[in-house]
Design goal:
The complex is a heterodimer of chains A (96) and B (312).
Chain A lengths: L1 E8 L7 E8 L2 H12 L7 E6 L9 H4 L15 H15 L2
Antiparallel strand pairs in A: 1-2, 1-3
Chain B lengths: L9 H13 L12 H26 L8 H27 L4 H9 L16 H22 L5 H29 L3 H20 L11 H4 L7 H17 L11 E3 L4 E3 L5 H11 L3 H14 L1 H7 L8
Antiparallel strand pairs in B: 1-2
Classes of the chains: A alpha+beta (96), B mainly alpha (312).
Chain lengths: 96, 312
């Protein structure tokens, strides 16, 4: 018996989302159980039924997050442009 | 998730953990947990799972006795949902460390608890309507609160369960309303069922318990106190029950404006304890049925498992 994680895609252009797990002796029964437990009302367009052991969980905060600020990668790191534009507009405006 | 890897001392870790859950933080399945938290959350979910699977039994009796094909299909679908919910919840208990075989063995040996309402017999079609409407309504109120449980896998599962429960109430209400719009005999059937089910309904949430005495509440395994759930149930359903012509069999039941709460006849909490311990009117019969079917289906488990060890 192995635990399988079940991902369910409900809409055509949406990614599959984690729905839960089932325990089964093989892939075929895992798919049956996944449909019964996680798509009994036909909610799924598609199911991914994946052995839990096939999944690598990554959650070390030091690995995932940079120790330094990287707001040069985010749009909100460029709010200064508002003030700069305002200043330019006012100097250009007084020029003849 | 709660990350306490920087703390070496287990006692301090436990204190930090409990403070984090009290502050509203959530726990994932592979987080470190104090042993008592793990034990309590596992037991809580196990009782819920057992209630789902035992809850299928009173309704199962009525599949062959449903008055119309549509009702037969609806009752069957509801039972399918309950068993599906048990599957979802048993998975959570397994991930907390208790194997399915052990969970099931404890249940059929009478060592585990399940909700009081499933220890009572169903006597008529009126029971089917009252249970599907009001017992499920009571469950939905506590399940909605459990969507904020500190144990995240349980909170997520509760969202799915609540979504699936939606039709159960409507189906039950439809049965009751249809009968109340029918003959005098049909109306009496519903009233008689309500007369028997009111006491178990009032007991359903358990005795009032402040957080100091209720660790499940203190640690946010459940997020609302028992009495506030009961008050919520009464506020929502007493008017709905009365307005269709039913009488609630408690002459003391009334809303006290000054106190801002419902007052009702004193509940015999010792009786609830006895029932929870398996001394309800249908407890032995239902557990006996589970034992019987467990033995009868051993060959199915064996076949699925390729002739190897048996699982539930």
């Amino acid at each position: 018996m192995a635990v399988y994680e079940v991902f369910r895609q409900e809409e055509l252009h949406e990614p599959p989302a984690h729905a839960g797990s089932v325990e089964a002796p093989n892939d075929e029964l895992a798919a049956q159980y996944a449909r019964e437990v996680y798509s009994r009302r036909g909610e799924a367009l598609r199911l991914w039924v994946v052995p839990r052991l096939a999944i690598t969980q990554v959650e070390d905060p030091d690995f995932l997050n940079s120790p330094i600020e990287r707001d040069y990668r985010m749009g909100q790191g460029y709010r200064i442009t508002v003030a700069k534009r305002r200043q330019l507009r006012s100097t250009e405006g007084t020029a003849s | 998730m709660i990350d306490l890897s920087h703390i070496d001392d287990t006692d301090i870790r436990a204190e930090e953990f409990l403070q984090a859950v009290r502050d509203g933080q959530q726990v994932e399945a592979d987080d470190w947990m104090p042993e008592e938290y793990r034990f309590r959350v596992s037991r809580f979910i196990e009782m819920h799972a057992n209630s789902e699977i035992m809850g299928a039994l009173p309704e199962r009796d009525w599949i062959l006795r449903a008055p119309t094909l549509q009702r037969k299909l609806a009752v069957t679908a509801k039972i399918q949902d309950e068993v599906g919910h048990a599957q979802l919840l048993y998975r959570l208990v397994e991930d907390l460390g208790k194997p399915r075989e052990q969970i099931y063995a404890d249940l059929i040996a009478g060592k585990s608890k399940f909700h009081n309402v499933f220890h009572y017999p169903t006597k008529s079609w009126g029971d089917v309507g009252i249970i599907a409407w009001l017992v499920d309504a009571a469950a939905v109120i506590s399940q909605a609160a459990l969507q904020r449980s500190s144990y995240a896998p349980y909170a997520r599962t509760m969202r799915r369960i609540c979504w699936e429960e939606a039709f159960h109430l409507k189906h039950g209400e439809d049965i009751v309303l249809t009968a109340m719009m029918g003959t005098q005999t049909q109306r009496e059937l519903i009233q008689e069922a309500l007369n028997r089910w009111w006491e178990p309904l009032m007991m359903f949430y358990g005795p009032p318990s402040p957080p100091e005495k209720d660790k499940d509440l203190d640690w946010h395994i459940k997020s609302k106190p028992n009495e506030s759930l009961r008050q919520e149930f009464l506020t929502k359903y007493v008017p709905r029950i009365r307005e269709i012509g039913l009488t609630i069999p408690d002459p003391e039941l009334r809303f006290d404006e000054a106190a801002g709460r419902w007052l009702y006849s004193e509940i015999d909490w010792d009786k609830l304890v006895a029932i929870s311990r398996g001394h309800g009117p249908a407890s032995e019969q239902r557990l006996g049925f589970r034992r019987l079917t467990y033995d009868e289906t051993a060959w199915v488990r064996s076949a699925i498992n390729g002739g190897n060890e048996l699982v539930a």
